[in-house]
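dude i think i finally got it to work??
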Amino acid sequence: MAGLICSIIGLLYQGPLTGIIGDEGNGYYSTAYNIYNIVLLISSYSIPSAMSKILSQKLAVHEYRNAQRIFHCALIYVCIVGGLGSIFLLFGAPLIVSGNSIPVVRVFAPIIFIFGPLGVLRGYFQAHRTMVPTSVSQLVEQILNAIVSVGMALLLVRLAVSRGYDEHTRAMYGAIGSALGTGSGVVIALIFMFFVYNINRDYIKRKVIHDHHEDMTYNEIFRMIIMIVTPFIFSTFIYQLPTTLNQTLFTKLMTGYRGIPHNEVITRFGVYTRKSVVISNFPIRIAAAAAAAIIPNISTYFAQKNYKKTSQMVVRVYTLINMIAIPSAAGLFALSEPIIMLLFPQKSSLHEAGVLMQILAVTVVFYSLSTVSNAILQGIGKVNIPVINAAIALIVQTVALVLLLLFTNIGNKALAITAIIYSLMMCVLNEWSISRYLDVKQDVLKMYIIPVLVSVLMGGAAFGVHMLFKFLIGMILPREYFANLIAVLVAMFVAVLIYAVGMVKMKGVTEEELLSFPKGSKIVGILKKAHIMNA
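look at this
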């Protein structure tokens, strides 16, 4: 739920932010953010998942003192590695980006150091089987990020205007303001997590005092952290590398080979990443949240050799993800331009962003499933397999992108097509790998075919309803934006209704399965009150 709410907040503030900094400013921000993200992945980003896995295994056998010692060593580890990452980004920015992206990258540099302890604390509480502190900290982080990003972008753009700077410099100032928002969110989240830890400190100390297991040495702990964290880093690094690699290839080939001006290329990249990708990532965030939540459970069941329970957990998560990802993909495809218009009303790039989002819609399903399957493989100790699978997919998608950019004129659509290739390969390779170690019995009809059929029907109905209501309301309201807004809301309501009725009537989901999902009892209650499900 926190991932969903964070995604909603992230979507809502993108519109006014883009209105302030423009597509070019989005391009500078995206270029800098992708570099920051790669360095963050290497230094700190994989820490929550890795710590969750290590600590959950110790807590499962009641080694509370060793768990606490691991926690302290992890803090030392991220401070050292995160500090090195911050220094590298601060002084090495001109080596990895060019032009107006350099100052934006340098603003991101100190955030890497701050994120390390935050990641350790999140992993610590996830290992204790509670997602509440992590979820609340994510909400606090995103809220402050939204407020500061918009506020600082507006302030700095006005400053640039008052000094008579050109439009390209104004866009850079706006991107810097957005980067400051990202940093402020991380700071407030870290403060909150330390506050929660201090509240629970006495309870933790009591557990440690009554633990009589043999203590691990610090050498053993650091060796364990490095051995566990390293595969997580490689896996996540390679999994995220396509974004930065594709950005570099797109920029170099479009400017060098095609001779397109750098600012225009950055603008096209900004339309792709900060409009179409941001919206398509909305449902994928739910998969990422589910993946973070299931690692401790899967690690614990697998460590206890309870393979039946492990497989049941896998099936449950897959069912939940499919029920969200498949209709989301259909909805984004059917209402691509109307949704883009709600959040980013700039007409100059509306059609371009809409077409890109239609292409990206299918990746919602593939990325959601591959994100969860990555977590499953890591949870059962097969941490190297996602690295190998991601490397194979990366090679194939890179070759495909280069060929598309060299021999076609489809521009940034090549990035979207490449995303489909990469996400599909990751999905297939991970599924094949899981089948080698777990006997996961998936009902293909129930988990895939029925949701797809219902989603196609839902998408067609949503498109038709939107067109009808936009035409009727447009006759009354002269403002196209408000006519589109009402039409989208009506279409979404009809879509949800059709999907709920279709899934229940076609036996795509049962009452028992719904009750096992988050807030399942409330969902069942609503369905029964609406007479969609039998009371």
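The longest helix spans residues 2-45.
im so relieved honestly
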